[in-house]
Amino acid sequence: MNKSLILAEKPSVGKDIAKVMNCRKQGNGFLEGDKYIVTWAFGHLVTLAEPEAYEARYKTWRLEDLPMLPSPLKLSVINKTGKQFRTVKAQLNRKDVSDVVIATDAGREGELVARWILEKAKVKKPIKRLWISSVTDQAIRKGFQQLQEGRRFDSLYEAAQARSEADWYVGMNATRALTVKHNASLSCGRVQTPTLAMVHEREEEIKSFQPASYKKVFVTLGNGLHAWYQDKRGNNRIFSGVDADKILENVKSEKAVVTKVKRKKKVEPTPLLYDLTEIQREANNKFGFSAKETLNTLQKLYENHKVLTYPRTDSRYLSSDLIDTIPERLKSCDVKPFSKNVLKIKKEKWSMARTLFNDQKVSDHHALIPTEVAPVFSNMSDREKKIYNLVVQRFIASFYPAAEYEITDIETKVKEYDFVCKEKQLTKLGWKEIYERSPNEKLGGALPQVEEGAALSIKQSGTEHGETQPPSSFTEASLLAAMVNPERFIKEKNKKDLAKTLKSSGGIGTVATRADIIEKLLNHSMIEKKGKYLHTTLKGRQLLTLAPEELVSPALTAEWEQKLLEIERGNIHKASFLKEIKQYTQDAVQSIKQSKQSFKHDNVTGTPCPHCGKLLLEVKGKNGKRKVCQDRSCGYIKNISKTTNARCPQCKKRMELRGEGEGQIFVCRCGHKEKVTTFNERRKREKQNKASKRDVNKYLKSQDKEEMKNPALAEALAKLKGKD
């Protein structure tokens, strides 16, 4: 009997699908049933081959060998996941497998994961596509009832291929050219370099900012109104050219005549649901989570806990086919601290805001919302709870009515000077009921009633002094916002056309890649964090002057992203796009080769290399510090320190391991130092003195038996428990 092979992206998803499709028979890297075989990747099992796969000379980095433009690009199996690739390949090529169901993540990158595996395994069997946004049992069953023809997604695969190959040509060549030319590790890419440039430009804005002093003139009127002097443009800040003290002197002890009273109601509808970028920004602002941390947490809530839908979405709307599923999703949120909100929604018979359902604004995936699965908070980490609560809070808010305000403008005249009082009063909480509100958003407290023509005495008058402030340095939240809308960072003449392109393409990068881009810049020491703010390093600033000019601007990557969308839609072919990419690569490499600029290391030590005599560089990595020779062709490396999992006995933080051989010591930032031999002896003693879980359980069972034998003891223990 022929079977269908289901290919999932990760083991956890594969096992969820296998459970639903009755695949119980355990294999090595797969599960099998009567009709289906389920196997899985570990993300990418296959990638684009390294340059040396084309020509042996590419193994050595040389300027004269650039640009490298092999065509077509080859695929290679990733070494560390090679065993699973062989398992998947064996299952794909089984004689009893008649067709393949692609069940990788429903998006551009998920399509690439599966198609590259099929291509490398030389599988030509018919394919179908499972396209789901959550991995609950219900969603999986429904997805298999609506399997789509796999070839329908060929253009999505072409776009994914084009993106990957373009990044290979540009990134591989530009990085090698810069690194060899300047004898420094300089990573360059079509999204990361413009992102780095935006951080630098913000720093330049702050550096060149000239603060301007200003004054504000205010009067407090007899009925409690607080009014500000306004110029013709409605600004209440007085800069040079207007004598604030003169205004103040002239209005003292005068009457203010009310010239206009304007009241209007304002409705603030429920906020849109989260897409990935918006929740990354919110989590960074509220909790200080990095974009990468938030994405990883969402992925766990989606894959492991199954309480949220697919996270890599760029939409903040829902498709109309989800309307019937909303009551069950709301039911899953009926847990503390949201039970009272869910009860109110049911009592008031509120429905989700219809404006949030818009098929035209949903592309591959709808907005991030809860699934029909109720959360088990005891199984969640603190970070997972916080992110889950953010999504549920926004989801529940969408059932509540709009918040309502009363906006009041009262204009008065004191002699020839115009004063204005502007107030905004919250009159109906609406959806704001489930959010913490700022002090100026409390209900009630209407302004004093005044009529036009009324004369009011001035109780108090005065001035406030201030100074204009520079823009803030980027945080991850504000940088993500700039990546979505980088229009102001474009300097090209055709700025309007490029801005339009940026808007339609969703900015630079994609929702799925922006977190990785920021992380890569941090890991490559192009930017660094100071508190919550991001700053460029000397290495990053130098890269911006050494990289080709077009690669520094957001315009180029926005144009490319737009073309990738056109490939995805089937409007242009991958080959024409890659022809353009190759030409750009040739031009970029040529400009790097001809550059007269030089690179200056900012991490030079006073220690000479024992091999070639050049001064060593101190390099910080994820897991510690190393000294490396600044001459790449020398290759000398010596570890200085390594961050370990060993905990300090005083402050419990992770310690660094320094030194070599018998002289190795653990060092903690709190000042604690300990020889490795001493540490090992201490750990040995602790293990001997610490009861194992097995011992603890054994002891507890013996106590239960003792209670049974000794009623007096049981009674005493019961009293103690009662006091707790």
Query: Any idea how many domains?
Result: 6
State the CATH topology of the largest domain. Topoisomerase I, domain 2
CATH architecture of the largest domain: Orthogonal Bundle
Low-confidence stretches: 720-724
Count every beta strand, where a strand is a DSSP E run of 2 or more residues. Answer: 24
How much strand?
Answer: 15-25%
User: How much helix, percentage-wise, in residues?
Assistant: 25-40%
Number of helices: 22
Mean pLDDT score: 88
How does the overall form come out from the CA principal axes?
Answer: globular
Largest sheet: 7 strands, mixed
CATH class of the largest domain: Mainly Alpha
Radius of gyration: 32 Å
Structural class: alpha+beta
Query: What's the CATH H-level superfamily name of the largest domain?
Result: Topoisomerase I, domain 2
Distance between the termini: 63 Å
Numbering strands along the chain, what is their spatial order in the largest sheet?
2-3-4-1-7-8-9
Which tags fit this structure?
22 helices, TOPRIM_dom, seven-stranded antiparallel β-sheet, 724 residues, disordered C terminus, 38% helix, Topo_IA_DNA-bd_dom, alpha+beta, seven-stranded mixed β-sheet, Topoisomerase I, domain 2
Short synopsis of the structure:
Helices cover about 40% and strands about 20% of the residues.
